[in-house]
Design brief:
289 residues, mainly beta, 10-stranded mixed β-sheet, 3 helices, 27% strand
């Protein structure tokens, strides 16, 4: 039998080699961590781990994050915002971010002692935005993030963000960290709102989450803070926390669920919860039925 194969050895070797290549494919490239469209990490020069092509949020391995940072389910995900529209790219940021610098797809606007931004700081439309008001008295005319895809505002300088701070988009975080920060209204109309008045005397104006919000978190932990009214009409969930001496104005909330925590001598203006489910601690709910 060995003698019989010896004469046709080249033919059989070629056939076996051809079958092996067809079944297994060519050897993988050495570019293990190329970046696919939108920033998703892929392997083998544009192929996602597992062999499927990654393009704008294609299949990822084991439920990893797809393009745009949205967590995938069962190994696949779709890039884009919660509404299903494509997520902003670095190119989008470069085109829109004329008053800041792009960090990937995020427009970063810095207002410090050298550049205090006395004019109203407006985030560009359709891209994520980060505003850092770190200088004393910076962002004195306020911050407008209503048209951004998402927004983070840090009012870290003393008496920073003296004007209104208003935001929208998929998510909004406002940090009033320094003494006297956020002197006017702080309003969030994003889907997810997170408003923190942590500096002494911060947020003396109205603090609110509008009807476009699904979830709303308001923290008044500065000594004192949130001296005006607090209101949330977030549809799904509201959580409000007032430290001792904070929230002397009325606190009102609606929606599916509302939790209000009044600590020490706080919420002296009363709490009115008109949500479907109310949990008020520290003071009496004046709207309880």
């Amino acid at each position: 039998m060995r003698e019989g194969l010896k004469g046709g050895g080249c033919f059989w070797c070629a056939a076996v080699a051809w079958l092996f290549v067809a079944a297994c494919g060519s050897a993988p490239d050495n570019d293990l961590f190329d970046t696919a469209s939108g920033g998703a990490t892929t392997s083998s020069a544009g192929k996602a781990a597992g062999g499927s092509k990654a393009s704008g949020g294609g299949k990822a391995t084991g439920g990893g994050k797809a393009t745009g940072g949205a967590a995938s389910t069962g190994g696949s995900g779709t890039a884009g915002s919660s509404a299903g529209s494509p997520a902003a790219t670095a190119a989008d940021c470069k085109a829109a971010c004329t008053n800041g610098e792009c960090l990937g797809a995020v427009c970063v606007i810095t207002c410090d002692a050298e550049h205090p931004c006395p004019e109203n700081v407006k985030c560009p439309k359709g891209v994520p935005c980060q505003v850092a008001c770190t200088g004393m008295g910076s962002c004195s005319s306020g911050v407008d993030c209503q048209d951004a895809e998402s927004c983070t505002v840090q009012c870290g300088g003393t008496s920073s963000c003296a004007g209104n701070v208003i935001c929208g988009g998929n998510s909004c975080e406002v940090r009033c960290e320094a003494q006297g920060a956020c002197m006017s209204e702080v309003r969030c109309d994003a889907d997810s709102c997170d408003l923190r008045c942590k500096g002494p005397g911060s947020c003396p104006g109205k603090v609110s989450c509008g009807g476009k919000a699904s979830s709303c978190v308001i923290e008044c932990s500065g000594q004192p803070s949130c001296q005006n009214s607090i209101e949330s009409v977030a549809t799904t969930e509201t959580r409000i926390s007032c430290a001792d001496g904070a929230c002397p104005g009325q606190v009102k909330c609606k929606g599916a669920s509302c939790t209000v925590s009044c600590n020490g001598v706080s919420c002296s203006g009363g709490v009115c919860c008109e949500a479907d489910a109310c949990m008020v601690s520290g003071v009496e709910d004046t709207c309880a039925q």
